[in-house]
Amino acid sequence: MARPSKKISTQKYLPFKEVREGVITMKDGSRRVVLMVDSINFNLKSADEQTALLDSFKNFLNSLEFPLQIVVQSRILDLDGYLKNLETMAKKQSNELLQSHTREYIEFIRELIGISNIMSKTFYVVISDHAIQEAGGSILSRLFSRKAITPAGQFQEVRGQLISAANLVAGSLGSMGLSSVLLNTKELIDLLYSTYNPDIARRQKLFNASYVDAKIITTQTNQP
Questions:
Q1: What pTM did the predictor assign?
Q2: Rounded to 10 degrees, what is the CA torsion of 79, 83, 84, 87?
């Protein structure tokens, strides 16, 4: 009788150990939080507005007391959900003319997607506790200098320091008209999954993000 094949997980080759309470813990012990930042169409600004934005961004960089990482991801825009919503609206539309126009628009979008890929850019700011420590924050040195501290207590204090740094960055970006949001656990897992599986992530979604600690993480295929 043939033995069932053993599933082999690739998770052990990934650089991160866990994602918990909006924090990514790397295998080297460092931790990260991630801000997702909106963009501004710089080319549509006037010359004076462009100069003001550049000056504001320069001041923002000079005001930082710790290094950070700016990540730009380009992805093929997933319009499946948008098209499904349009189809639902078309079915509920009582006006035959509007229903016809909606269906024509759906077909136009599908033809457009078939001709060329529509790309979207997403901007992230990554903040590391090691970066804060190296800049003089000395988070870990203060933690380890105490007589007794639990791992949970250490995690919460480092997390609090990272969130404070993220709020500082978010406030500075906000002064330039750039809104940002701190990613929660599920959003971080989705980001990591789509980053390491850019093609598969378009067709398959994580079955349940709460199972991220499992030895084998499964996916589910979107139903047509």
A1: 0.71
A2: 180
